[in-house]
Amino acid sequence: MATATRRRGAELEGAIRDAVLDLVRDRGVSAVTMEAVAARARTSKPVLYRRWPDRAALLRDTLLTAATEAIPHADTGSYRSDMLAVLRGWAAAMTGDLAPVLVAVIAATAEDPELAAAFRDGVIGWRKQEMGELIARAVARGEARPDVPVHLVRELGQSVLWHRLLVSGDPIDDALVVAIVDEVLLPVVRG
């Protein structure tokens, strides 16, 4: 008879985050309670509370982890290739297993200020910072004009993808990503 082993560290945290994403995917954000996550992850509530003080922190951490794993943020050496990597990451997230989670989270933020703050501060805040750094690198390399409106450009590409995911339902594919980068973003940053 095999002896059960206790999960620890990254393995346990991965199981907990998977449980959160599964709950959101299957039943919506409101299904994410400490009790439900503990049951789905086959752990205990005290284990959760040792890592996260509350549901909002658990959601924020899970969503941020999912985003940082899905959206590339390494310097590829050029603004164009950086943006292609970022938007391809978003496109994959918005057309793959993460898509129902993203839709559920956005829908729930209208009714859940705690979740809205967690999503804006965690995922969106991280993306704004990353995009600001990406654009600053482009300016430093001479690929973007120094007066580029960072507060607009950092959201431009993703906004088209989010609109298609949440509003129009139009396809999100690689041809769209390339068109956004080559026909919209590059002309805007170059001036």
Question: In terms of per-residue confidence, which ranges show pLDDT below 50 for 5 or more consecutive residues?
Answer: none
Overall residue-averaged pLDDT value: 91
The main sheet comes to:
none
With helices defined by DSSP (H or I, 4 residues minimum), what is the helix count? 9
SS-based class? mainly alpha
Q: Summarize the amount of helix as a percent range.
A: over 70%
Percent range for β-strand residues: under 5%
Q: What kind of assembly state do the chains in view correspond to?
A: single chain
Provide the CATH architecture of the largest domain. Orthogonal Bundle
Shape: elongated
Return the CATH class of the largest domain. Mainly Alpha
SSE order, one letter for each helix or strand: HHHHHHHHH
Radius of gyration (CA) equals: 19 Å
Measured distance between first and last alpha carbons: 69 Å
The CATH homologous superfamily of the largest domain is termed Tetracycline Repressor, domain 2
